[in-house]
Structure prediction request, 357 residues.
Amino acid sequence: MKLRVLDDHDTVLATSDLDALGQDDLVPALSDFLADAPRPDAAGHRVVHGGSAFTRPVVLDESIDVALQALVDLAPLHNPPCLAAVRALQQLRPSLVQVACFDTSFHLTMPAKASTYALPRLWREQWGLRRYGFHGLSHEWASHRAASLLGQPRGQLRIVTAHLGAGASLAAVGYGRSVDTTMGFTPMDGLVMATRPGSLDPGLVLWVQRQKGLSAGEVESMLETGAGLLGLSGISGDLRRVIGAADAGDDAALLAYDVYVYRIQCYVASMVAAMEGIDALVFTGGAGERSSRLRSDTCARLAYLGVHLDDVQNTTSSGDRRITHTGVLPAVLVVEAREDIEIAHHVRTLLGGGLTV
Prediction:
């Protein structure tokens, strides 16, 4: 759980990163943080899945809480802890305005051809089955920051943003709007992740249920927490440990890393196709920001798109930066994930400026 207090200039006034907490630990942890932090005017929460009901940030109240509870099954790893934090903060600061900011909102600009599954009309129209996309707050910030680093308006650029962390996704941000992304109806789709498999043949899921007797709950648990890098390597979902084991000669770890990188490379190409070109590729998220090895290996097979790294900038520099030579397009950049700034912007837009969030 990441806690930040920002003033109206986006200066961080207080910060804390905590391990995942149970319900009983949330209230004391938040209480300790708030005791030492400047008093906020409002609180913004990252909510992973807004479904079709929530298209923009909303002020949280009892009716919104009920509606969000109905979406828990769409993001069972993410939405429940968020809602628990909302209630804990409500208990501590009952008069504090709380705002839900949705990771799905940024991708609502995707055209129908990108967001629509080839499913029966009943499933699509009455059950709301479509591609939503996630990590929207991160992709939105990364594309804004990339445009700033390049000194060009975001509305004139075609940017592929790569959020690579425990969860991972790409987005095609074409001329300021999300036009495609790798995640779909849930955050399980697309790239290989720490413990999630990414894209799968749905027939595979049906097969393990029918032929091996696994229940829906058992399949869900394995695909959420036992697949991805962890499932492939048998060692860890932490990319650093997987790379270390691969370099030490572990064949399973090497395969895990190769599959992970290969999936990123293939999906970068699909994002470029969605925009009919690329001006910038942006790496963000924990692995995207910190692993020069991952960036180098990913870009090694993207030369046909004109991607060529400056090895010195990639391996020796730090902070938000360009890691291709000046003037070379597409540019490759590294941007720190700052969902906190994006959330604060959304909260101020909804409630008015000059707020400590």
Remarks:
- The chain has two domains: 2-128+339-351, 136-334.
